[in-house]
């Protein structure tokens, strides 16, 4: 499994940097965002290091999707949200700051004022 020694998310997967883990499987790791844009903001990542969605092994799409559905439902339940956004910022121009592919799950309430 590829890992980047300088990657903050690889360090989180390895337990070298603490996180509030919400799910872990053989392939997937999920944790609360350190700077949530809304309560319940979760990041879902492959454990293996891929800089962006474009490099990611396509076989990981299914386990990631499964985790996203489970966690989005849990985040909505926990926050009383009526919906959620699923966002994958890809490359710096689109706002990607951490170069390890990650899916943002952002719980949403009607008229919560957030524009993404
Ligand atoms: P991006 O802008 O790359 O799509 O999103 C990166 C996300 O990672 C941001 O929402 C940021 O708050 C989150 N983040 C960055 N460093 C850490 C960290 O060390 N721990 C956690 N839990 N989240 C982080
Ligand atoms: Zn990484």
From TrEMBL:
Signal sequence extent: none
Span(s) of short sequence motif Histidine triad motif: 100-104
Domain HIT positions: 8-115
A GO molecular function held by the record: catalytic activity
Domain of life: Bacteria
Active site: 102 (tele-amp-histidine intermediate)
Alphabetical GO biological process terms: nucleotide metabolic process
Listed name of the protein: HIT family protein
């Amino acid at each position: 499994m590829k890992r980047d020694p300088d990657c903050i998310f690889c360090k989180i997967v390895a337990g070298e940097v603490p996180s509030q883990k919400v799910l872990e499987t053989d392939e997937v790791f999920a944790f609360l965002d350190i700077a949530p844009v809304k309560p319940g903001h979760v990041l879902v990542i492959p454990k293996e290091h891929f800089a962006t969605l474009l490099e990611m092994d396509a076989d990981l799409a299914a386990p990631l999707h499964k985790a996203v559905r489970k966690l989005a439902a849990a985040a909505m339940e926990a926050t009383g949200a009526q919906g959620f956004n699923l966002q994958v910022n890809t490359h710096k121009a689109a706002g990607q700051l951490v170069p390890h592919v990650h899916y943002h799950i952002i719980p949403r309430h009607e008229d919560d004022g957030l524009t993404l």
